[in-house]
Specification:
With about 475 residues, the chain is an alpha+beta fold. It is built from 14 helices and 19 strands. The longest helix is centred in the N-terminal third of the chain and has 15 residues. The relative contact order is 0.16.
Length: about 475
């Protein structure tokens, strides 16, 4: 039996073992978890049994041989701080950028704590760990800026702008008297690189990083199943009707899966290097600040802009790393509170959008340079998402979750259902519980209570539960 088959067999054996989970340890094994209907094996053979700060950052059991070597190389490229020097393996940063490495925003493959709450925006050193999207109110981009404001720049170059955020707070009350608070963000751009843009002509939306959990499974997902869900996802009694996003990417129309609005068909590794770090590559060979003064300044500083900063082979290793990461197994699945909380999850019909079980296509996924990962194929997975767009409403505190930003077929009030696998470990991995696209929700309860539109009925069921039922539902979310 080769090593890959042996490792896969270990995971299958894990599904047959009926024991309890020990939450106290950082790493646990198959013998530490009771599997209920297989749901603890979040990603089939890619499930890993870690419960620590590196729980998102472990290779799946099938990674070995040359793939292990490439995984480690991709891991280094993902985490290593990039430099401004174009010569060398990690050169090419800037001249403007939002992050200095993939890991700067996705610490331990998770969500680096944003400075939105801690420092009120771009922060002391201009690093927000967030992307700042801007458009004109007619949907057009600004000529001097593009779609993203880059609030960092290399030495001698001016950042495109800085972000300031303030919050409007409002206190609400559950029927049983318990209070909760919602905070609506107000965004302001200052220290513009070029002429200031009048607030009345500007839409600004902020996106904190997504967890890089289950990326390979998402890329291997059975597209026919998602499209079938879009046709069937119509529950008029709850006002729910999910739809798929389609975008033109790599020269063809494709089903969108990744991103807050399912606005991409792949993991956007090339776009991440280009837009987030300012590193040119074969798909985006021009500097992100092409046409701006930064190019002239860089030329005067002796920097080179006539070469690609990162190779296609290196980017595919990063793609491989992300798609080969394991998905943490569920924890505490035999805890009575977690079991009761799962019942409350279904009582509120959360599963109508946060679909519990999906399947991957037989051949797995294909990386950006053609390498195939068949080990991701024919798997039963539990992402707790239908990967469809849903109207999240615009009535809470007058704005709700409508950010007025259109992505493909997704309107401003439409968002892809966030996969919940791994969400219970975010605090342990990244030290915070900021949720939703812009981190406005500071905990699970606030995240639920921001749901509007197609989430309104489920939110109201949660709202009218007893405190014990609400608390147990949160415990269930922590087990994912």
């Amino acid at each position: 039996m080769n090593i890959n088959c042996f490792r896969c067999l270990l995971v299958v054996i894990a599904a047959l073992i009926m024991v309890s989970c020990d939450e106290t340890g950082d790493h646990f094994t198959a013998e530490d978890i009771e599997v209920i209907d297989g749901y603890a094996l979040s990603a089939g053979t890619s499930t890993v049994f870690f419960n620590s700060a590196v729980a998102y950052d472990q290779p799946a059991n099938w990674v070995s041989g040359v793939y292990d070597t490439r995984f480690n190389r991709g891991d280094r490229l993902y985490d290593n701080v990039k430099s401004t020097n174009n010569n060398g393996h990690n050169g090419g940063l800037g001249p403007v950028y939002a992050g200095y490495s993939c890991g700067s925003c996705h610490r331990n493959a998770g969500r680096t704590e944003p400075t939105l709450w801690t420092q009120g925006g771009s922060g002391t050193y201009g690093f927000t760990s967030a992307l700042i999207y801007i458009t004109r109110k007619n949907g057009a981009f600004f000529q001097d800026y593009g779609r993203v404001i880059h609030d960092n720049a290399i030495y001698g170059v001016q950042p495109e702008g800085k972000l300031r955020v303030t919050y409007d707070f409002e206190t609400f009350e559950f029927p049983d008297g318990e209070k909760y608070e919602l905070a609506k963000p107000n965004y302001e751009i200052y220290e513009w690189y070029a002429d200031s843009i009048a607030p009345e002509d500007l839409f600004c939306t902020v996106r904190i990083p997504l967890r890089h959990v289950g990326m390979g499974q998402m890329m291997a997902i059975d597209r026919n199943e998602i499209e079938a869900l879009a046709r069937q996802s119509n529950y008029p009694e709850f006002g729910i009707s999910g739809k798929a996003n389609y975008i033109n990417e790599r020269g063809r129309l494709q089903l969108g899966l990744s991103g807050n609005k399912a606005q991409h068909a792949d993991l956007t590794v090339e776009l991440g290097f280009s837009s987030d770090m300012g590193m040119t590559n074969s798909r985006y060979p021009e500097e992100i600040s092409e046409g701006q003064l930064q190019i002239n300044q860089g030329s005067m500083m002796g920097l080179l802009y006539d070469q690609l900063d990162v190779s296609t082979e290196d980017m595919e290793d990063v793609d491989l790393y992300m798609q080969s990461l394991g998905v943490p197994a569920r924890r505490n699945v035999n805890d009575p509170r977690v079991i009761h909380g799962e019942q409350m999850f279904y009582k509120a019909s959360c599963q109508l959008c946060h679909t519990t079980t999906l399947h991957t296509q037989p051949r797995g996924s294909t990386l950006l340079n053609g390498t195939e990962l068949p080990w991701l194929g024919s798997q039963v997975i539990h992402p707790y998402s239908d990967f469809l767009l849903h109207d999240m409403g615009s009535e809470i505190m007058g704005v709700g979750l409508n950010d007025n930003y259109v992505s493909g077929l997704a309107r401003g009030n439409e968002w892809r259902t966030t996969p919940l696998w791994g969400i219970g470990l975010q605090q342990k991995v990244n030290g915070h519980t900021y949720f939703l696209h812009d981190g406005r929700a500071r905990n699970f309860v606030e995240a639920i209570m921001w749901h509007g539109g197609e989430g309104e009925a489920s939110k109201n069921i949660f709202k009218n539960m007893t405190k014990e039922e609400r608390d147990d539902l949160v415990e269930f979310l922590k087990s994912l």
